[in-house]
Please model this.
Amino acid sequence: MLPIFRFFIVSKSTVLEYNLVLVVAGIIFMLDVYHHVNAKQKTLPNISLRSYTLGLIPWLSWMRGLSIVSYILNGLLGIWMARRPSFFKYWGYVLTSIMLLIYTFSIAVSRFFFPDFEFYCHLLIEAIWTANEMGLLEREFDCCGKAGVIDYIMTNRTPSAMSCCEVEDCHGCKKSFNDFLWNIEMEIARDNFTLFVMMLIGLVIMTIFFHSLVLFQDPYEPESSTLPSSS
Model:
């Protein structure tokens, strides 16, 4: 145990348990990334999103996945470091945490404050309509056309019998699709903000725990050597 600022005490078990929580949280958030990739494949399998900055674009999914893998590995490093602390592991943990904090915070803010969201949604649904790929959206959201059945009437196109809902005033897909995309944006923001807060707390706990330890040990000393504990 290390007495911190007279009233605050951080134990070795606290460091171990919190980093274990970070690892479990990372696995849960990785499932969210998988869910979003699957949602893209389910609703927009033949539409390229390279020209859009929406949350479903492939490169953002890859970056989120890689950052969460780094987050999980950092949590495992924290567990290892709590058991066998060393100068290199400590600063590796700190530097990785800082980089991930910057990344997760920037992603969370960019998703919360997205002034061009409506613009990109409009461009995307127009691209889907032009490519004649509305069928999947219509089945998924139980809608018809962009604004309604009138879109098919005005363009002299026939909707798929399996797509449009079987009523004359069937609503269009634009609002449902926009809501779907906005929910994904908010889930991405929520996940990254939660990761940011959890990593920040973990970094503070780790710094407090190790600030009194003799981390500046001989780098050539065997890794298995233990550090003297503080009373």
